[in-house]
Structures are given as C-alpha cells and as structure tokens.
C-alpha cells in the first residue's frame, strides 16, 4: 500500500493506517503524505519507511512506483487527502493500473464523480470508498435481517448524525486543521456537514434497507456566524417502496460526539442501531418486545460473523471498521488477480456508492437553494 | 370533582381518577361516566359513589349538581370523553359556573376551541387542559435551565413521539375501543396521530424552549391500509428565534411503546429528556461533557422540586403527572376563590395551550394537503 | 383505614396514604399521626379528616374506633411509625380485631416478631408487611419465570442495595428526621442499614427465586465516624438448593440514589432487574442473547399483568408498589370477610416475611459480631 | 517481535498480533507458534513470515535469533501460550537478553513467579504482563481522579467479572480449545476462573484505587458437573486503608459476555466503569449528581489522553488496550536503550503485578480450601 495524504497531524490518515495494519494482510510500503515534501519526509520517517519510498507528490509516487518491478512496487494506493484532492490522485492511480482505496466523499462534485466512474469502468481494478460505518458487524446483521423479511416491508426510516464539534467558529482558531478545511468550500466542496457526515447517514440508510431514496426535502442552516458551509441539515425523505424518512445531520448539536444512529420500522418489527454502541442491535416487536442482538453472541448472518474479530463482550470499535474495509478490499484484489468473483459477504462500498453520495449532495443543495422544497434525485 | 366520561373500560378516565386521588386534595363526588346510563351507573357503583350522584348524561349532572347547596355540590368537572365530546360539556360546565379539567386535545376543531376560549374569558373560572407530559419534574427543570440561559440561544429542537400500537389495523378488531374512536374522524377530528400525540410533542417543544413554532412542513401518511386518519407524521419546524426543528410522531413504529422525547441544542449546550425514563435529564456540553440531572437529586429549580414527591431513586411516573396537574389546578381554584394570584411554579396548561394545539393541527393538515409545503401558523 | 404515625413531615406516611388512595378502594377515615397530639391534630386537619377522628395516641384511636358501629369505624390500621413503635400498635390492633398494614421491618427485634406472629395466628385477621419492592410487575414476572423453569436451576444470585444519603454524618444535623431515627439503635433496632434496606434485598432475593438462604457471612462497617449503626454491609450467601450469592447494602455509596437490583443466573439463562428502571426485566441467555421484558408489553404471567395499571411506556413507579400492596390487602380482607381464599396472583408479604426478615437481621449481626464468619439461620 | 504460541486457531495470539501491529511501531519478524512444528509453519506462512524465521520450538527460536546480528534479530518475545508454558520461555528469553511481553497470569504458580522475578531483577530488560484492561483510557482517568482526591478516601470497592461461556460442560465438546485448557489444572494451574479472570478483577481494583488488598475471604464453586476447576467465585475484601470490598468472578453467569466492571465509593463521590462500555466513566456525587466522563471528550489526565487514539464518539475498544500495552512497552524498550527513565503516563503492568496476581490466587485458594475463611496475603 502507498498512501497519499495522511501526514502526522491529520486525523483520518492514521485511522486508515491502523485499519490497514490490523489484520497483518497489508503493509505500508511508500507514501506521499503531504504536498509539503518536508512534511511528507518527516511522516515517512516516523512510519519507518525507507527514504526512497517517501515521495514529495502523489504524481511522483505513482510514476516512480510504477517503474518498480512487480512484487516490489505498491499494490494499491490509499488516498486520504481533503476532498478537493480526491479526484486527481484517484484518476492518475487508476490510469496507471493501481487499485484504489479512497476516503469519502468520492470527489469534490458530481461531475468529477461521474468522470471517475467512467475511468474506473474502463479498468479492471478494485475500488473501495471508505464509508466505514457500514462495515460494523451489527450493520451487516441489520441489513441481513431486513433482506430476510424479519421486520416486513419497511415503512419508516429515521437516520441521524448529530455532532457538536463545530458549535463555535473553531475553524478560525488557526489550530484546528480539520475544521479549517472542512468548512472551506474550495477544499470541501459546496456542502459542509452534508458532505462530511450527511453522506454517511444516506449511505447507512440505503445500505441497511436496500432501498433508494427517490426524493427529498432539505432545510440547511449555517448557525455559526462567519461560517461558509452548512453546519445543520434537516431532511424529509421518500423511498422507492413508499417508505418515508427523516435524515438530519448537524455539527452544532452542542455536546454530541459522533452519534450516527438509525431506526427502521417495518410492518412486523423494527431495528435500532447506534454507532457509539456499535456492538448492539435492537430488534423491536410490538407483541414480543425487544431482542438484543450483540456482536459475537447471536448474529445469525455470516456477513456479521466474518466482520467480528473478538469473542462476545470484547468491544470492537471504529478502527475495526477500517480494518474490515481494507481486509475485504485486499481479498477482492486477490480474487480479481485470481480471476475469481469476490465473496459477497465481504463487501465494501465502491464507485457506485460514491456517485450516489454526490447525487445525494446535489439533490440536497438543490432542494435547499430552492427554498427547502421536494426534489427528486436525478 | 364530577367526572364526565371515563367508564370502567376506558383508559384515560382511570388515569384521571388516580391522578386526582393521589394527593388527597380532591374527592370524586359524582359522575356521568357514559352516554349509556346503565354503564354510567355500573361505573359509579364500582367507584363507591352514592346512586343519586351518578347521572345518565353530563347535562343532567351539571343541572342537578348546580341545584345542590354549595359545599355539597361538585367543585369542578373533569371531562375525559373522546374528542368530539369535549366541547359540549366544557361549554355547559363553564356556563354554569363550574371550573373545568379537560383531556386534550381541547376540542374537535379550531372553531370550537376559539368559541370555548371566548366563553371561558367571560367567566372567572379555572381551566386545565391535561397536556400531562409537561408536568414531569425534569421537564420543569429543562424549561428552567433554558430560561436561565444554561444552554444559550436555542438553535435546534428534535422532538419525537413514536408509538407502535397501530402497526396493524387493530381498530377493526372490535375489541380495541381506544383504537376504534381514535381512528374515526367523527370522534377524533380531522387528524389522527397528529391530534392524539403530535400535539403533545408540539406542546412539549414550545413549553420547554419557551419558543413558538412559526412555520412548519408536514408529511403525513396512512401506512395501514383501511385506516382513515394519519398514523405517521414527519415535520420540519421553524421557530420564532430562528431555531430549526424536527417533529415526528408515529403510531406505526412497530415495537415502540410511548417514546416521547426531546433534544434541544443551544449555543452553549444541550438538553435531552425521554418520557420513558422521566426522572433523568441530560445536560450536554461540548467541552465539559454531560451532566445527569435527576428527580430528587440535583434539580436546581423550585418548579422541579415542587413536582417531586419521593426521595431520589424512588421512581415517579406517569400517574404523578396527572396528580401534578390536578393538584396545581386545585391550588389555582383555591387561589381564585381567595382572590389571589396562582403560584407560577405550580403552573398547568390552559385554554391558550388548547387553542395553540388546534392551530398546530390545522397548520399541519394544511401543509400536508398542499403537498407537504412550508406553511405559516395563522 | 386508620393511620398510626405518618405526620406531615414524615416520608413514608405520605407514601402509604398515596398508595392507599390510588385505586379508590380505600379511604382514610381516622388517624393517630404522632405521639405529639398537637402534631397529630394538625396532620389530620391537613388531610381533611373530621376533628373527632384524629386521635392523640394509637391506644385512644383503637379503643375509640372499636366503639364505633361497624360500617362506620375503620376497617384496618396502617402503622407507619419508626421501628420501635411497630410492635405495640400492631399487637393492640390485632387484639382488638383490626386488620393490620405495617411498614417493615416488622418489629424492633426477633422476640417481638415471634410474639406478634403468635398473636396474629390466634386471630382471623389479614396482615400485610409493606416490603413494597416485590410488588413491581416485573418482579412478579421474574418470580414467575423462575418458577416456570425459564432459567433452569438457580446457581447464583447477586442482590445489591446501594444508597449514598448517609455518606456524611447527616443525622447530627438536627434537620434530617429520617437519618436521626434510622441511626438510633433505640428507635431502629440493633441493625442500621441492614434493617432498613438489607431486609428489602433479602426479601427480594428469596421472593424472586423461591429459595431460602440457609447460611451467610456478613461483614458490617460503620464508615462514618460518630454513627452508631452499620452503614455498609457485604455478605456472602448460601441457598438451600446449593446456589451461592452475594448481598450488599450500603448507605455510604456516595452518589447512589436507591439502586436496589438483582441478578439471578440459572443453568439455562439469567434475569436482571433494577428498581430504578422498574418496568424493564432482562432475560439473558448464552446463545440466544438477551430479551427485554417490559411492563405492559410482553410479560406472560397474570401476576405481572394484574399489577400493571397503564399501557406500555407510561412509566409506573414507586407509588404503584404501595398501591399494589394496599389493593391486594383490601381484596384479601374482602375475601376473608366473604369466607373465600385470596387470589394467589394478588399476593403480599405477611407475618412470615416479617419474621424471616428479623431472622435475617439476627443472623447477620451474629455473623458479623463473631468476626464475619459463616452463620446458619436458626 | 518474535511470538511464542498463538497459532491460527488460538484466540489471544491474534489479539496480541493485532495490538502489536496497530500503531506501526512493532513488526512481527519470527515465531514459534506451536509445539507442533507443522502448525507453527502453517501459521508463519499465513502471517507472511519467511520460512527461516518460523521455528519449531521456542528454544530453537531464542537460540537461533540470538545468533542473528543485532538489528536483524527480534527485539523481544511475545509469549501467548497456555499458562503452564509461560515460565519456561519467559525464563529463557530473559536469560538470553530478550525483553518479554507475557500474557497473564504470569506463571502456573507462585514459586515460578517468584523465580521469574528474581531472574528478571538480574537483567536490565523490560517486562510487560498483559493485564490489558487497565490500559483503557477511562481506567487511567479513574486512577488519576482517585489519586487526585476527587472522591476522597476510598471506602468501598465492588469489582465484578461475570461471564457465561462455561455455563455448560463445553470443555468436553472437543471443539472448544479455549475451554479445554482453561479448565485443565495441568495447563491452567490450580485456579480456574479465579486465575483466568479473577486476577484481572484484582489487578483492576488495585490499579484504580492504588490500594492493596490485605485480606480476603473466598467462596469458590464448581457449578458444572464434571469440571475440574472453579467456575464461580464470591469474595469479600479488606484493603490496606480500611476500605471494604466485594470481588466476584464467574463463568457460569448464563448470558453474560465479558462484563468486567468496577465501582469505587469514597467519602466525597464515586466512580463507575464497565469494560463493555469502556469509553464512559461515571463520576457520582451525592449532591451534584453524576457527571459523564468520556474518552476523547473531557478526561483531564494526560494518562487518559495519551491512551486515546480517536476523536470523541469513534469507539475505541479491546484491541486498543493491547495496542496501548505494546506501544508503551516499545517506548520503554527505547527509553531503556537510550538510558532514560520511562514516561510514567505510558505505564504497563510488569513482574510485580504478575507476582501480585499469583499471591492473590494463592490467598483465594487457601481461604476457600479452609472453608471460606478470612485469609491474609502473605
């Protein structure tokens, strides 16, 4: 694996590295960790990479690695840069024959996403978009239960993603790098919280239910004076099967950490899951009451089981979701190289999910700018 | 107290009787428990009332009680009939000089509500509408904290009221009296779940925040085939101070019991409360983390304290909310009779809250019937 | 009902009155609320009793009420005095033909308890000891599930009763009447926390499991300097069927409210219940995971159902446990008067439970004073 | 790092490997994964090790690695064998100059532990015993708060470790390797559950409080017929400062996963922590109520902060505790090599904790075999 972005002071880069390392299936062999060559070098050194595999730019890395003999050169790139720097390295990597792991959202805007999709379709390469929250075992189990009819036809979906870390204008502090780029349209894209976390909520809802949102209505707000992008979004949803829904994401819910959660109600029961207690899935039923499904205890699906590493009660967490994605990606690469189909229980989001996310952002922005009106997905 | 409605097989009548009895301040002295005189008599007997104080109709009760000497006759009426039978007895009671406790919603429609308000304003009588959920001590404390600036200016309000008991067409079973009248427009009014529980959510949100909703957008659904009234509602809200909100109520959230809950986020913190764990209020803050406020432990407001009966950890529940309303109503009657102002910490919802609820229902229905569009309160 | 003790500033008296009033089956007709006649009068007045039914002493009340014609005189006495004043009025009431409701523990010591039992056995009267915590619907359900074999043979019982209200020497403040008498051996008996709350834990464990403790080992402590009675107790238990257990009660668990809770593990599963969330019972199983049983939702036993007043999700609490006891007691009195057997699903603790509690206290004190050694029940 | 034990079908070996890999500070370079050379080879292959670094026995590994040039040979051994195979490789590694990471309990019995301690004291090597549960950030914070006086003098400690996985005689199934060796005295030592999990509870209690247990009383049981070692233990504790405590561990709590938890009450407040929700620490106080301390939110100690990898609400779990130990161990090795003192906030359990654990086991067994009597630590 060669990493693009992810210098020492970045949040998501180290998460990717830990996720990739966890199962011992993937080795970091090179990196272009920063557009600042000095910073890249420093990071490479801290990661015990040989100096000659630490590059000053992603272009250099892709070019030079390609020249190395097979077996020695990196197998794939992992791109963990801010959003505006997703498309260029992803495009170049694919065009040079490297598989790609890319942090979400896929690109800065929908046009880039469509272009990237077109490029990818011309290759025979594996592409993983790290919508990691769908890699929790209990999310797999929820998806399985709905698919198997356990709660009947889905009627109502409530998906929430409240955070509080942007309750104040922290991006102007000069010390919060995360906040700075995420609230800067030139780096983050036209959406703020909707792009950063709203897309996770959308991805989670569609993944678990297996249903597409067909139209939505979005009411976006910038609550913190001086901010440039939305920090709060309230949406109503219509799903393809007639189900109705609510999605809200916020970064001004003062005191909330990272409380992505979903509730799905069907004709025969319901399911509830919270990211912050990820090993618990609650299966509700009007007459029978609630059953607790727990990681490592009583998940019935193979999909949940193969994403579980520890025995019951040994908490699995956030880093394991990245490990799940990287491991499944590695398996898919091997299957590809062996000319085999990948195992569907070891799935991960790809280009389609990325384009879907950009369509979601587009539809949300369009709805909101037209006065928070009902807007169909195009 | 004389009761109108509330025969033995009704749910809410016995709740009112228990609430009224709890503190020993109020005695049931007569009743017209059913439009069926036989049933009324039977109920009166089961409640140990003398035969001559059990009436065959509310008209008879009000007329005959009025003829009794003061001190002997009932002091007030408690009306616990289905919605369509709220207005006639309330009107007659007020016009005959009796204070009134009335189950919510105030009337079948807004016109009746406005008329009742006009009648009440001509009297010098006390009127209580039993929006009981705002009578929990921790709701009082939440209101106090927001008023005192503890969470700063309110930005976002999420209020939910999911139930699951109408997940199937139980109203056609012939055995569920509750379900039958609540889903029948002639008895319940033009709204189903919105009138039954949505109004509680609206009342809770406005009471706690002290803010009025100025416009809303409502997406109503009848999920269960054969049902006549809405069983699910998703709404977006705008508040007078610029805060945004979400309100959803549902009776098809299969497996949910009675999960009224609210989250309010301000510039400086947030508050979270759930009716099903009513003695806990969570005060969130981005830097300091969460503090748990508990009934009988650390509520700082007198309003919370005077609505607390037991020491910490001796759970207070639903029946105490009715007891709080009845006790506060009794205190207000006495204050009125003594020519004093009522104590504001012993408050309860009145005609205004009732009219507000009808305005809410009207606005919701109008928004929905126009295609789920933004609609201002009139 | 005539009440002995329970003046306005007492905690438990008002709980009893509310419990008795809740269902409209019982009326307070007289009282001797304090050994101070002035205070008794004042309390009676506040409770709207006629002056001539408020007495200056329990002796006077029992004597004078007995002289009243049947139908007019009180049916039973409710005794809510401090422990040292349990035996005299209970004895006199029974000897004068009045049924008795008595707050726990039954008497000041075991000798009194045995004597009271003997007196009661000579009468044909109904006796209720208000170990109220076993009157929760989910406790009834737990007992039913164990009896029905749902968790197999019981192996391990953990019952806890932590409180924190005596973390400091509050009894010397002069303002905490509760604390003052409860830590005074002349009023409370030879045990402090063990008598006050340890007996509730013992009663709960034996009631739910249907098993008797046969021997125990108790390590008692007085943590707060200047206190005269135990404020902390740790015990190991042996049950008659070979099950092992732990019981601990404390009043110095700083920050704990009233957290009585129990866990019972059998060969096939387990049950967990907490008084502070009384409407939830968790049924654990190694392979199937946990099921949540909730008041008003999915309790299978009639015993749980007949102790449930509200629909699901309308929290029932502490006051309902007293209402359950008083209602069941009233039913038993009527059955007795009608010459019928009482319905076993409407049960309540009686003299036997009281004597058992005193045996428990004795055994604990004996074990502790011998150096915390294993001690058999006598 | 060279690993001893931990073939593919072992539980704890893979946990160690993942923990060691997580931060990219440690590389697995060789292993003797099984006493069965075939199995060792297979494991090495699956872990992408070169064939010549996969050994048939630990003796061979230590001998051969020692012969490699510095910089190439392993820096330390990680020993993850069953208990009876802890002492021999640990001894040999130390005697040949290798630092050691060793799974707990340190050895099969106390004599071995003392001998190992003596050997270690003669070296200048770093030794880590993987009592991993004390490596959670919230455990560090709890220790810090107690040390800083936040809850005053400690009075009561309740530490529990219930599991349910040995509720049936699974060791005889032939398919549960874990269960088989853990219930076999020749491999596990004289204690069953007490050695496996009781020692974790003891370690946690003493680490958090900073207090030593001075005497205890233990009541051990074998509930499952046919089992050779204790599967349930109930203990009372006395601490050096006069605090009292309860410790119980069980593997027959049917339906419990891995619910290690602790409550500590002092004069001024209390602390509560559960391993299964490891990122939450509750700080209780009688007047102020409870405060929630969360990983990544409001921990005040540097010790907690340096053991936190993700921002708030991105759950950290079990694998991170091993990563913490391995990283801290690696830092200590480097400090040692640089002749520096290790940073006390990056601490980990060592030989002392191991000897302490064996003393605990010895005292427990002695108490139990004498009839569950009070027994002092020797």
Automatic annotation (TrEMBL), chains A, B, C, D:
Provide the species name. Answer: Siphonobacter curvatus
Entries under InterPro entries matching the protein: Gfo/Idh/MocA-like_OxRdtase_N, Gfo/Idh/MocA_oxidoreduct, GFO_IDH_MocA-like_dom, NAD(P)-bd_dom_sf
Indicate what this protein is called per its UniProt record: Oxidoreductase
Name the domain of life this protein comes from: Bacteria
The Gfo/Idh/MocA-like oxidoreductase N-terminal domain sits at 12-128
Which GO molecular function, any one, fits this protein according to its record? nucleotide binding
Domain GFO/IDH/MocA-like oxidoreductase span(s) in chain numbering: 140-271
The UniProt entry, under SUPFAM superfamilies, shows: Glyceraldehyde-3-phosphate dehydrogenase-like, C-terminal domain, NAD(P)-binding Rossmann-fold domains
Q: Which residues form a coiled coil?
A: none
Q: Which lineage is the organism of this entry classified under, starting from the top rank?
A: Bacteria, Pseudomonadati, Bacteroidota, Cytophagia, Cytophagales
